[in-house]
Amino acid sequence: MAEKYSIGTFAKLTGVTIRTLHYYDEIGILKPVVSASGRRLYGEDHFIILQKIVTLKFLGFSLEKIKDLIKNENWNLKESLIFQKKAMLEKRAQIDHIIKCLDSALNLVDEDQPVDSAIFISIINGILLEDDHKEWLENVLSKEKVQALFDISQEEQLELEKRWAVLLTELKNVCGSDPKGEESQSLMKEMFTLFTEIVGVETSAILQMNVPEDPSHVPLPFTMEEQEWLGKAMKFYLEKEGIEIDEGDIS
Description:
The chain is an all-alpha fold and about 250 residues long. It folds into two domains: about 5-75, Multidrug-efflux Transporter Regulator, Chain: A, Domain 2 (Orthogonal Bundle); about 90-250, no CATH class. About 65% of the residues lie in helices and about 5% in strands. The chain has helices spanning about 5-15, 20-25, 45-60, 65-70, 75-110, 115-130, 130-135, 145-150, 155-175, 180-200, 205, 225-240, and strands at about 5, 35, 40. Helix 9 (about 155-175) runs antiparallel to helix 10 (about 180-200) and helix 10 (about 180-200) packs across helix 12. The protein is elongated and about 95 Å long.
């Protein structure tokens, strides 16, 4: 007669907690034999089923999926593994993206000076919506050019983000002053220069193109009053540079 094991003994032999075994019983994935006295008993077949569960869990399958696979004696192992690998690759890409955002966040708050929350959120959202930005930029630049923009090293990316955060902070600090003043216009020049450096195309050329509105909806780090001030400062700067543009493009 095949030997039977109590739930406590089975738990010790397999290294699985009694609580987990109760849960597996509850969801029907590993049901023990119940004796006349109500004791849960496990046999050799349960060791095999549990090994399948442990292996499939390690491969990332959900318990619900594992239950289906165990019930189906003729399940297509290769098809299931291909599907699971795809799911794991997608999850890894998501985790890598989150880590990238965390690196950028730590980079922005690395200094002793406080970081404006609106600027911080705007930059992090820009990273989160990177794919949307790529799609939008392809309305302006070639796919090869867009890909090159995003193929820079992480060090270069972090440096650009830091420079952009500092510039936005300085712009916020001068908002409300004379938009035609020397400090305001110096920052406008720096902003357009940095933008040209990042995109690799003169800002004037992009401003004169008929491109659709960016659909990513990244929140601007400026209040309505600050945006109005920026519009005036940008308009004056572009006029000085001899760049003609519709006012609606910089409002």
